[in-house]
Amino acid sequence: MSLRFAARTRPATMVSTWLNSLVSGTVVSYAGYVAGGESSVHDTVDKFDFADDSRTTLGTGLSNSLEGAGGFANSGTAGYVAGGNAGGAIATVNKFAFVGDVRSTLGTGLSSSRSGQTGFANSGTAGYVAGGYTVTTVDKFAFSDDSRSTLGTGLSTAVSILASFANSGTAGYTAGGDSGSSTSVATVNKFAFSDDGRTTLGTGLSTDTYGLVGFANSGTAGYSAGGSNGSWAIVATVDKFAFSDDGRTTLGTGLSGNRRFPTSFANAEAL
Fold this sequence. Notes:
With 271 residues, this protein is mostly beta strands. It has a domain at 116-250: Neuraminidase (6 Propeller), CATH 2.120.10.80. It has strands at 12-16, 21-23, 26-28, 31-35, 45-49, 55-57, 70-74, 78-85, 89-97, 103-105, 118-122, 126-130, 138-142, 148-150, 163-167, 171-175, 188-192, 198-200, 209-210, 213-217, 221-225, 228-229, 238-242, 248-250. Strands 1-4-5-6 form a four-stranded antiparallel beta sheet, with no helix packed on it.
């Protein structure tokens, strides 16, 4: 389906979750980054320092003005912004080194041009970009050399505007999404980081949903929040998936209001 989005919506996000340290004589701190989005469409990258919540805008932004990209991070090293809509779908992957906030563009981008995808990471090992209008593809980027491979088994259904979260060191998850023709799904796919094998959880989301967001308390549970359900109603639902057994519960207290296309971040113990 074709969608338009409100002012500076659907940016990519990435988080530097490392301890303050001296790297090449430079003090490095925790920070969150927000990249791109529609206002008109931006190439801007804003950085928020967790020490004092101050905001700076990077001197070098994205290589394209875009919205609908996927983001992921290798904590302590770099954040990545993959694909998106820049007046048409693109396959470009931008990399921002957390030391110096320097941007480079990977020689090998996504395996196909697309927007509406999601990203997650096994920090220290690899980042993943899943789905998009409207494919089952899951691309994997090895953090050791930024090389790309494409998983032999992608998503169980071709979807875009889906959510993701990860239990670092164990597995990444994708949840919900728009499968085209105004149809949303409740499916939750799980990708084991040990072999990139995919399983589909027996219990998916509590309702068919697209335009939702995910976040995680790594080692404990992943969450999906908000979105629009199969009846096009915007919802405040928050589902929780326990990493111990992938069991789902729905929080008694959801979002403070019904929301579609939110974004998210989490303060979790660095692994």
